[in-house]
Amino acid sequence: MTASGAQERLERNPGYYQSLLDAQHDPKLVETIRTDLHRTFPDNIHFRKSADPCLQKALFNVLLAYGEHNKTVGYCQGMNFIAGYLLIISKDEETSFWLMEALLDRILPDYYTPAMLGLKADQEVLGELVRMKVPAVWRLMQDHGVMWTLVVSRWFICLFIDILPVETVLRIWDCLFYEGSKILFRVALTLIHHHQDEIVQAQNLPDICERFKRITRGAFVEDCHAFMQRIFQEPGSLSMSTVAKLRESCRARIAAGES
Amino acid sequence: MQKEHLFKVLVIGDLGVGKTSIIKRYVHQIFSQHYRATIGVDFALKVLHWDSQTVVRLQLWDIAGQERYGNMTRVYYREAVGALIVFDVTRASTFDAVLKWKDDLDLKVTLSNGKPVPAVLLANKSDQSREGLRSQIPKLDTFCKENGFVGWFETSAKDNTNIEAAAKCLVEHILAYEENITNNTDPDVVALPGYNNNTKERVRTRCVTCSKF
């Protein structure tokens, strides 16, 4: 809360969260959010309809408030998992809202806007980093014509929620709030680098996808303390300026390709 | 000789219409109320022993339904040879979006002869439909004809209604096209988009012409 500036914003803006909820809401936004309520952490008892209190209501409020706060973003699938995860941890709607604001408005690039340009760029940035640091895997992807988005989009959109074990995600998010979005590349690169021998044995596209799922499970990611040490060693040096440069060139490339 | 086919099939439609449930029912014979919203794309493989000579491997691509994922997921359309377009009979807005999905499909991918890929329309969650909406369903015959769907089915992933039938219908159309192509592999004939290259048609046409003389 403190590190991300969320605490300060909460204190400086009393009543803001409530005012967002009291505003007139776009019916389309409300319907889209509602569609995903029962499809967010369906296995978690706090999100069951029978739970008391049922976190589905709190989830609805946080997502609606954010959609009102940032009308450009509105609601994007994936944000349901982020808000839900924040609610599980903080157990408070308003705190979750401000943490979400910190993440989406300041820490992450524009992942969830309608054009999703920041997300598309970061998938390509990861591709470029793999080309430099794990060339064998990069070549495999080239040979089979597999786009990075196919195997890593969920990693970025859900910030590893529901992909890595809960404790590991908690540790990653600590770093995310303290050190920024670069940490996502460290985690992704570590997973790929550590399992490269396994990945390059893939024979075809479904096989590649399956292996990219498999590397997010098992002892390597479950031992969260050791895993967090690995992410700062295994991928080697990764400066913010490298990431910034790559982001800029990937963005330009995507924008040129779409026009 | 046994023939083996690999077909890429897209499962598309608005968010929450039951695309994932349909695939899980079809591939794993299960249903749950507890599926997560699909982010990005997922896929599953179904192997069909079609007849004594034919094995069909269906690669089912489960594509996220939210509109903004559209320009990211469209890259997955290439090389698809069929599609299931799904709507939810309890939410009219998901039916209104069906044509948007169909147009989008036709725009992004076509068969090697330039024709649209076969698409089957699924009116899902039929177990929850009320009489009011059900009375609209007979009109779907006309709707499908007018909009180029090869057929439609009232389905329920929950009750396991018509999922197999819908998939079978789609595979029949895909196979019919494949056979048509194989029968027509004449190196001197170039298949032009929109031109009917069917051998029988050509023979008949020629005969009609001959008989005139």
Could you provide a short overview of the structure?
The complex is a heterodimer of chains A (259) and B (213). Chain A has 259 residues and is an all-alpha fold. Chain A has helices at 6-12, 16-22, 27-37, 55-69, 79-90, 93-107, 117-133, 135-143, 148-157, 166-179, 182-194, 196-199, 205-214, 219-222, 224-233, 240-258.
In CATH terms, the superfamily of the largest domain in chain A is Ypt/Rab-GAP domain of gyp1p, domain 3
Sequence of secondary-structure elements of chain B: EHEEHEHHEHHEHH
Strand order of the largest sheet of chain B: 2-3-1-4-5-6
Name the shape of chain A in a single word: globular
Beta-strand percentage of chain B?
Answer: 15-25%
Estimate the mean pLDDT confidence of chain A: 95
- CATH architectural grouping of the largest domain in chain A: Orthogonal Bundle
What separation lies between the terminal Cα atoms of chain A?
40 Å
Give a written overview of the molecule.
Chain B: Belongs to the small GTPase superfamily. Rab family. Chain B: One of its GO terms (cellular component) is late endosome. The complex is a heterodimer of chains A (259) and B (213). With 259 residues, chain A is mostly helical. Chain A has 2 domains: 6-107, Helicase, Ruva Protein, domain 3 (Orthogonal Bundle), CATH 1.10.8.270; 117-256, Ypt/Rab-GAP domain of gyp1p, domain 3 (Cyclin A, domain 1), CATH 1.10.472.80. Chain A contains 16 helices and no strands. In chain A, α10 (166-179) packs across α11 and α10 (166-179) packs across α15 (224-233). The termini of chain A are far apart. Mean pLDDT of chain B is 85; it is low at 193-213. Chain B is globular and about 50 Å long. The N and C termini of chain B lie far apart (44 Å). Helices cover 36% and strands 23% of the residues of chain B. Chains A and B meet through α3 and α9 of A and β2 of B.
